[in-house]
């Protein structure tokens, strides 16, 4: 019998190829485990048993017929913001309750073509707005490391599922840290690809110029494997980049000789939990031991990152969410007297508090009297931050930093303090502003809580950060 909780993609493929297990057996075992244990964590919003088992039977038949696929027969959990044809996709919002996707997101279609199975949808902050998954309209997800704590967010359901062993691997999305920070809190690996690396077609938009889908896995190798499958230019997304996709798994050698790693001093500010600092320091020392050159660098514009991010993110959110009006998607309010009344009633009932706050903020920063002062200035600041990273990467192949100033938040701790919550994103939003890639790898602990380190790399150099992350994982 296999140890399903600790099974990763690489291990599952070995068992499937050798015939020790079937995909149906694997999928059924996972479904049983989720049913038995997910009530402790609330990681999943929906399970699609019949569909998953039918897909698994199809994968077994293909394998028996000698067909291959990089993910043939592997069940993957999907954040409820990515469209999977025929499955409900709520984005954690009442306004999309019961909405069934008529098509696959491109990232999903690519996984499907490689043989992956979509067994369920994971909880998230409503429309990916948040850092704790407490903004979900449906349920509070708990951190498997300690269930008094949040799993992080917004991809908290995917992180908790992988961290608890209730998923072999999952997909999340990252607009300002939503893959990396929950991965850090739940003790799994999370990869935010460079902007344009993975098609956004079928990823319900929060902030289109930051959003990226990426893997959340048990190992760096699995993240590399999933990215290989998901990445690439797509005719349906003009912002996807026509850049070759390397075979990332081939770069995982464990040897960091010849690499230079920058340590930006602005990421080591007062107020960081000492255990977080110690963990990051230990990872840096390990990289030096493995042959990397460590270099102190400076990114002085880091101070402006949170303000810049929250202006641009809310501005784009306010326009992106305008489409949820009760006419085209999901829920529609009863008893409206005219179209404007219908919009008002549907949005008032359908959106949660945080989403409304951001729509209002975004509408304000885009309004004619304030556009130049807020949105225009934020775009200028973003360009400067991007240039600052480009310049810094002339002297290093990657950077190592903390992910979150603290190892976790208790459930309810930040309920009435959105600003404090926003400030916790300080180390993750810069990668989205600059369009670069970032990886979160578990490297330490504070009591039960897991602590990860962040490895940032230049745009389209995911191989650099995966190589470092894998080397650290080998410890
Ligand atoms: N916590 C950040 C926010 O609320 C990031 C969210 C995300 O990456 N989706 O905007």
* Cα distance spanning the termini: 28 Å
Low-confidence stretches: none
Instruction: List the secondary-structure elements in sequence, H or E.
Output: HHEHEHEHEHEEHEHEHHHHEHHEEH
Going by CATH, the architecture would be Alpha-Beta Complex
Q: Could you state the CATH homologous superfamily? A: Amidase signature (AS) domain
Question: How many E strands?
Answer: 11
Mean pLDDT comes to 97
- Overall CATH class: Alpha Beta
Query: What is the count of distinct domains?
Result: 1
Task: Please give the oligomerization state of what you see.
Answer: single chain
Query: Spatial order of the strands in the main sheet?
Result: 1-3-2-4-6-5-10-11-9-7-8
Report on the structure:
It is a single chain. The chain is of the alpha/beta class and 475 residues long. The protein has one domain: Amidase signature (AS) domain (Amidase signature (AS) enzymes). It is 38% helix and 13% strand. It has 15 helices and 11 strands. The chain has an 11-stranded mixed sheet, sandwiched between helices. Strand 2, helix 4 and strand 3 form a beta-alpha-beta unit. It is globular and about 65 Å long. It starts with 8 loop residues before the first helix and ends with a helix. The mean pLDDT is 97. Residues 128-131, 154, 174-178, 206, 313, 425 line the site of glutamine (GLN).
